[in-house]
Amino acid sequence: MFSNNSVTEFQDLLANPIDKFLAISNEIGGLVKEQCLLVRKALDAQLNFLQLASQSQKPNDSKLMELLRPTSDLITQIISIRDKNRKDEHFNLLSSVAEGIAALGWVSVMPTPAPYIKEMSDSAQFYTNKVLIAYKDKNAQIVQWAKLWIEFLGQLQQYVRRNHTTGLVWNAKGNSLNNGTSIGLPPPPPPPPSADFFNDNVNDNSSKQNAANDQHAALFASINKGTEITRGLRKVTADQQTHKNSSLRQSSMVPDRNRTDSTGRSIGQKDPPKSNPKLSLEGKKWIVENYSGRRDLIIDDTNMTQSINIYNCNECVLTVKGKVNLISVNQCRKFSIIFDNVLSVLEFINCQRVQAQVNGLVPTITVDKTDGIEIYLSNESLQCEIVSSKSSEINVSVLNASGDYVEHPLPEQYKSVWTGNGFKTIALDG
Predict the structure, then answer these.
(1) Count of domains for the chain
(2) End-to-end distance of the chain based on CA atoms, in angstroms?
(3) Which of 53-62, 175-184, 229-238, 325-334 has the lowest mean pLDDT?
(4) Pairing of strands 285-289, 278-282
(5) Among 371, 377, 331, which residue's Cα sits nearest to residue 353?
(6) Of residues 267, 238, 240, 260, the one with CA closest to residue 251
(7) What gap in Å lies between CA 299 and CA 291, rounded to an integer?
(8) What is the spatial distance between Cα 249 and Cα 243, in angstroms, rounded to a whole number?
(9) What is the torsional sign of CA 90, 73, 42, 163?
(10) Per the domain annotation, does 206 fall within a domain?
(11) Domain range spanning residue 304?
């Protein structure tokens, strides 16, 4: 059963060091003050959620998403302040908060939420270190501000490790929320593609993600065995060793270089050499390639004659401002793109787990050999044509009358019937 002491402990965590942190934020002023006022609201929303969990049984997924939306919406607003003000003098401060606030998504991470918080803390510390270096001998107040933020994230990790070791604990004997009324907070639309896309965030409740978390936990458990990990291995005798038995070197035990693995790459083929990241304008073509883990890529000096070619970018977010002719995304994984207007086509080729959000217009989107894509359409782009081939898990979200995104999966199955002159093919929605 959920311990009410854990709610009290979380309240104490908000009193110290958060109260001091927010007081300094207020004195710094500007966008830092604005952003940290939302941090306070997000923490209060999480406190309300924890109090509800202490009194209730775990609800179904749809109800859980409804309960998490207030926190999710605030996290999106906090990140948006950073993304919209990259030229602000306190950009590194805004980034410290934007990267760290995603740690509140621990409530939906199973089975090990504490390491997730550590990852978010490390992302935040990348920017707080910049703050400490920049203001070390200039502004002791901002230096303290940065230290308090990292201190809070560290204490949050310890709190979760003590009270919710394997995931958020609900009250098994509490009230049922599935048939109850809403908690009274208006549900905002789900957030667009963001940095949270790369983590176990509040919007990721799929069975595939849970399976991935289980695999990670099993891996770490094996590592923690130390030398004990080899105890279960079978001893290889001399006649089974390739270097002592020439016949084995000619047998089928040697990998066939014509065989391929699950990624389509030949077994035994060496990985291609790593290339340096590149973001540059060459003539009328923007080149973005070989980035990994960059969530702050932006192209804002554009015109309608230019195209954007994106290649081999993994776990990145790219924002494109203005109007361009074409955007091509090729061989990218866990990549998100947010753009205003495209005159001709947005295309995805050989990608995995990608997202796209259009804020203005795009006439055509093509998806080829891509597994797992989420497309968020604006009201202006509802006439967009989406052409797909050899792809799976294509989901398109559009806004309803209430301003909420509603997801529509595109068919992956088709039925063909002989008509006498040829075959007629129709999509099977179910």
Answers:
(1) 2
(2) 40
(3) 229-238
(4) antiparallel
(5) 371
(6) 240
(7) 14
(8) 8
(9) negative
(10) no
(11) 278-428
List, for residues 162-206, the tens digit of each pLDDT value.
999 888 999 888 888 876 444 333 334 444 444 445 554 444 444
Q: Could you write out the DSSP letters of every residue in 90-153?
A: THHHHHHHHHHGGGGGGGG--S-HHHHHHHHHHHHHHHHHHHHHHHTTT-HHHHHHHHHHHHHH
CA Rg value for the chain? 25
What is the CB-side half-sphere exposure of residue 251 using CA atoms within 13 A?
A: 9
Range in 41-45, 170-174, 326-330 the model is least confident about? 170-174
β-pair type (423-428, 314-330)? unpaired
128 pLDDT higher than 60 = yes
Residues 288 and 389 in one domain: yes
CATH code of residue 98: 1.25.40.330
* Cα distance between residue 90 and residue 76, in whole Å: 19
Q: Which two tokens stand for residue 48?
A: 């309300």
Provide the whole-model pTM: 0.45
Is 127 a domain residue?
Answer: yes
101 in a domain, yes or no?
yes
Q: How far apart (Å, rounded) are the C-alpha atoms in residues 253 and 416? A: 42
> In sequence order, which residues have a C-beta less than 8 Å from that of residue 256 and are 6 or more positions away?
267, 268
How far apart are alpha carbons 84 and 31 in whole angstroms?
11
> Within this chain, do residues 167 and 51 fall inside the same structural domain, yes or no?
yes
The CA distance from 99 to 88, in Å, is: 17
Domain boundary among 201, 233, 266: 201
Distance, in Å, from the CA atom of 149 to the CA atom of 427, rounded to the nearest integer, reads: 52
